[in-house]
Each structure stands twice: as structure tokens, then as C-alpha cells.
Amino acid sequence: MAREFPGKVFFSQLVTIDITFERVTNTSENIRLNIVMRNEEIPLKLDNHCSQIKDLLIQLILENSHWEVVESIILRSRE
Predict the structure, then answer these.
(1) Dihedral through CA 10, CA 56, CA 60, CA 17, nearest 10?
(2) Which of 15, 24, 42, 67 suits 34 as a labelling partner, its CA being 20 to 30 A distant?
(3) Can you give the pLDDT at residue 14?
(4) What are the beta bridge partners of residue 20?
(5) What is d(CA 25, CA 43) in angstroms, rounded to the nearest whole number?
(6) Whole-prediction pTM
(7) ∠ Cα 68 70 54 (to 5°)
(8) How confident is the model over 17-66, as pLDDT tens digits?
(9) CA 66, CA 31: separation in Å to the nearest integer?
């Protein structure tokens, strides 16, 4: 679990990230990452602070030469 440091954005925009790791099967070398990102910001637009942090995290994962994205599913809250 990680959270942004206060100071650069409003408190309601601070993003919390939960990441869980699990092996796909006992014999596989693949590891599934489940990433849940959230904040208290009301999502009035699609390109909000939480979406920007998500894009940054995905970019960092893709640029790491030791990782390969096999599948990506993005679900947006409809609250």
C-alpha cells in the first residue's frame, strides 16, 4: 500500500495505491499484479489527478525491462 505525500495537491486528490502480487499457477513464472488506485476526488472529468497517477504508474511498469504486460483491465468507479 502506498499513498502520495501531502503538499502538491489538495487532500481529496491524494492517491492511495493497493498492489497485490500472486502467482498465476504453481508452475508458472507469471505473476499477476492487481492494482487498485483511489482517492476522494469527485471524478468530474476523465483526466483527473488519479488518472494521471495511474498513467504514470503504467508507464513506469512498461518501461521496466524486467516486466511484460500480458493483460490489462481498467475499471472505473461509477460513483
Answers:
(1) 50
(2) 42
(3) 92
(4) 34
(5) 36
(6) 0.70
(7) 75
(8) 998 888 777 777 777 888 888 888 877 777 889 889 988 988 888 887 67
(9) 12
Three cell numbers, residue 65: 525491462
Strands, sheet with 2-3, edge to edge from the N-terminal-most edge strand: 2-3, 16-23, 31-38
Query: Residue 70, by phi and psi: left (phi above 0), alpha (psi -120 to 50) or beta?
Result: alpha
Q: Mean pLDDT, to the nearest integer, of 4-28?
A: 85
Q: Which three cell numbers stand for residue 39?
A: 482517492
- Please tell me the distance from the alpha carbon of residue 45 to that of residue 6, in angstroms, as a whole number: 22
Contact assessment for residue 55 and residue 61, using Cβ atoms and an 8 Å cutoff: no
C-alpha cell at 8: 502538491
